[in-house]
Amino acid sequence: MNYENFLLEIKAPVATVTVNRPDKLNALNEQTIKELDVVFDDLNSNDSVSVIILTGSGEKAFVAGADIKELNALDMISAKEFAEFGQSVFSKIEKSEKPVIAAVNGFALGGGCELALACHIRVASDNAKFGQPEVNLGIIPGYGGTQRLARQINSGRAAEYILTGDMIDASEALRLGLVNHVYQQSELMENVNKLAGKIASKGQQAIRNALKAVKAVDNMPL
After folding, report:
1. What distance in Å separates the CA atoms of residue 27 and residue 61, rounded to the nearest whole number?
2. pLDDT tens digits, residue range 111-124?
3. pTM for this model (two decimals)
4. Which CATH number belongs to the domain containing residue 196 in this structure?
């Protein structure tokens, strides 16, 4: 299938999904989220794929947020539907039985940060910046970022970043445990592919069971 806003490369057992709107800093619009939904449906049902890498086109942005021009054109009902659909797609990524690695190669802001948080593992380039700046627009994160960021770095720190809209640079993201590794931009994809290949070399049933067990921690009662 051909996608308008994505590049898909499958070198079994690893698939690389690239958000391909570099002129818009890979911002998420309705079409992009719809295609993301289809891409993950296809990959989750593809038996030749064991690990999925998600990244952005170019060297400036993973995903720099929602497409503000399109977002501003939505009425209240359409905006609610847009948020709910995005939530369902991001949940699909989070619930994938195949490990999803975010290769964060620049800005991951707003919906882009939320997309990275929906992935199971995050690896960043040294120029990456994370953030939930929605408060600066008078709104709140709409795709689950309030919960996922709090789970990842603790609720107090998450509250500060969400309430101020401040950005988190790559070194701070590593210190906070928001990302697993940081590499120079030129070395990012090489190292992410090595990690993906290492995971893919393991027993697939064991990977599925281990991933399911790790994800279950988020739903355990205190």
Report:
1. 9
2. 999 999 999 999 99
3. 0.95
4. 3.90.226.10
